[in-house]
Write a structure and sequence with these properties.
This protein is α/β, with parallel strands linked by helices. It has 4 domains: 151 residues, DNA polymerase beta, N-terminal domain-like (DNA polymerase, domain 1, Orthogonal Bundle); 87 residues, Beta Polymerase, domain 2; 73 residues, DNA polymerase, thumb domain (Beta Polymerase, domain 3, 2-Layer Sandwich); 241 residues, TIM Barrel. Helix content is 44%, strand content 14%. The protein contains 24 helices and 15 strands. The strands form 3 sheets. It has a 7-stranded parallel β-sheet with strand order 9-10-11-12-13-14-15. Helix 20 links the parallel strand 12 and strand 13. Helix 1 runs antiparallel to helix 2, helix 8 packs across helix 9 and helix 20 runs parallel beside helix 21. The longest helix has 19 residues. The chain is globular. Bound molecules: zinc ion (ZN) (2 copies).
Length: 574
């Protein structure tokens, strides 16, 4: 087991202890040990061989012993014992939004509920609302959480599934005689939460199918034909492989990349031009037209090349026809990022470590923004501590060892009434202010929209953080009139963040086209809580591309001098 697998086991144990109503300090200790392990720079084998486990914060003798046994055997007697004591369905119930260990215990003890199915039935019968500490609203929310869970369970975050797809692709590339292997389907289009992995290949089909179905990560083989196979991956997702010939490859590639809407529009276009398009080829008067690659297929259809992430049937074909597709932003256009947390609030690395890592990425600037005072849970900064951080940043910027320019900022909570968490005397000293909603998600759509617009109208607001508060596959966006908020940002000359944290990707790519038309500038922000978190920017770029953004539409593609000027001009009003 590697350290991540061991950390997962420790977290599983913490969850079971919590369900058993064990001492909360013990529960916290397990979780801390798991974090500590994952944050360590060294591999687990190294930590054990050199007897350095107990040097990690939060790992005492007892946990050290557990980690060593988990590492060696993949389990631990204490874990096995817990597993026997706890109904497995109760652990699954804890995955539901709004259900912690305490509530799961109440449901179990009060109504004998042991599974999601039983919970659903009890909610439908109105039994849950009658239970103490629950009520009708909670019952309604639980039913909603259950239906979400069923839907979300089938999907995975792009950031989780893409590396898996990539590993399969690489494995198949190593088969002798293979000519192409591509990840297709929604992953190729950068979908935020793909449901499965689709792979297309050309080459020796028997060897490819054999290599595919005998991968170590295969849990079961679902189907195995001459040119097609499906497996269930141990992550619980389905992976499909199709093998085709080189001559049909480009047509297959387009067909299996989709989307459905894009494919329909392409076929209709072919038809109008007197041709017939399918996954097997393009024909005109019974003549097979030949294409070496996707570019040539699009060319035969009178279109410039459409990059996969744009293939959603949202106007890309019309733009390709008139050669007006945008010159999309690239990862290398990024010159720095904003929305970065440090150990001053809930980040895991210090200001200096974040600066050092950003400098290594070749960036020119970094915008520091820890939490504001109302985010008590996240260690939000009092005015005094914020001033101290501002001084530390000034010192860094003036020091000889400076490697990057640091901007002074904050992620400022938006209060329930739309006002900001600090007074003007504080905000005016900062280079930028990100305003975010972290509480009161249940306001009505009108109230929430009004609240955000009021925050945007505050003269010290630079940009809006994670606009809708969604957590992909975990929490829906709060009700919000996004279009109205974009209009307000446009009217006030404010920036909207594209939060690149893999479970946020907020504002959604579907809204960027409109925001761009209104002249709203985007900022691709990693919302980094550690130095590795800075790397989230890359997926933010993917989402920006999917939203048709060009480099010039994004604040942090501009050079330092221009960014300084832009930030100043926003603070002095439209
Ligand atoms: Zn936030
Ligand atoms: Zn944040």
């Amino acid at each position: 087991m590697d350290k991540h697998q061991v950390a997962d086991k420790l977290r599983e144990m913490a969850q079971m202890l919590e369900l058993k109503d064990e001492n909360p300090y013990k529960v916290i200790a397990y979780r801390k040990a798991a974090d500590s392990l994952e944050l360590s720079e060294e591999s687990l084998s190294c930590l054990i061989e050199e007897n350095k486990l107990a040097d990690l914060p939060g790992i005492g003798e007892a946990l050290k012993e557990k980690i060593e046994i988990l590492y060696r055997t993949g389990t631990h007697p204490a874990l096995e014992k817990l597993k026997k004591e706890i109904v497995p369905g109760l652990i699954e119930l804890m995955e539901l939004q709004g259900l912690g260990a305490k509530k799961v215990r109440l449901l179990h003890e009060g109504l004998g509920i042991n599974s999601k199915e039983e919970l659903k039935a009890a909610c439908e019968k109105g039994q849950v609302s009658k239970l103490a500490h629950f009520g009708e609203k909670m019952e309604h929310n639980l039913l909603e959480a259950l239906s979400h869970h069923a839907k979300w369970k089938e999907r995975r975050l792009y950031g989780e599934i893409q590396p898996v797809a990539r590993a399969i692709q690489e494995r198949l590339m190593s088969v002798p005689g293979v000519s192409h292997v591509d990840i297709v389907g929604s992953i190729r289009r950068f979908a935020e939460t793909p449901a499965d992995i689709d792979i297309l290949a050309s080459g020796p089909s028997r060897e490819l199918i054999e290599a595919f179905t005998s991968m170590e990560s295969v849990e079961t083989t679902l189907a195995k034909g001459k040119f097609k196979a499906s497996i269930k991956h141990r992550l619980g997702i389905q992976v499909d492989l199709r093998v085709t010939g080189d001559d049909t490859y480009p047509f297959n590639l387009i067909y299996f990349t989709g989307s459905k809407e894009h494919n329909i529009q392409l076929r209709n276009r072919a038809k109008k031009m007197g041709m017939k398009l399918s996954e097997w080829g393009l024909t005109q008067d019974d003549d097979e037209l030949i294409a070496e690659n996707e570019e040539e297929v699009y060319k035969l259809l009178g279109l410039s090349y459409i990059t996969p992430e744009l293939r959603e049937g949202l106007g890309e074909i019309e733009s390709a026809e008139s050669n007006h597709l945008p010159q999309l932003i690239r990862e290398t256009d990024i010159r720095g990022v904003f929305h970065v947390h440090t150990t001053a609030s809930d980040g895991k690395n210090t200001l200096e470590q974040m600066a050092e890592f950003a400098a290594q990425l070749g960036w020119e600037y970094l915008g520091i923004s820890d939490h504001s005072k109302s985010s008590v849970q996240a260690g939000g900064l009092s005015e005094e501590r914020l001033f101290e951080q501002m001084e530390a940043i000034d010192r860094y910027n003036e020091s000889k060892n400076k490697k990057i320019h640091l901007f002074k900022g904050v992620e400022c909570d938006i209060m329930k009434d739309g006002s900001l968490d600090y007074e003007r005397a504080v905000l005016e000293k900062l280079d930028f202010t990100i305003v975010s909603i972290h509480r009161f998600f249940t306001l009505s759509k009108e109230e929430q929209t009004k609240r955000l617009i009021k925050a945007i109208e505050n003269p010290y607001t630079t940009m809006v953080g994670h606009l809708t508060g969604r957590l992909l596959l975990r929490r829906d966006a709060y009700p919000l009139n996004v279009k109205k908020v974009i209009d307000a940002a446009a009217d006030n000359g404010k920036i909207i963040e594209l939060n690149a944290s893999p479970d946020r990707l907020d504002m959604d790519w579907r809204h960027w086209h409109y925001a761009k038309e209104k002249g709203v500038l985007a900022s691709i922000n990693p919302d980094a809580h550690s130095k590795e978190g800075l790397l989230h920017y890359a997926q933010g770029v993917s989402m920006a591309r999917k939203g048709w953004l060009q480099a010039e539409d994004v604040l942090n593609t501009h050079p330092l001098a221009k960014v300084k000027k832009l930030l100043k001009s926003i603070q002095s009003g439209p």
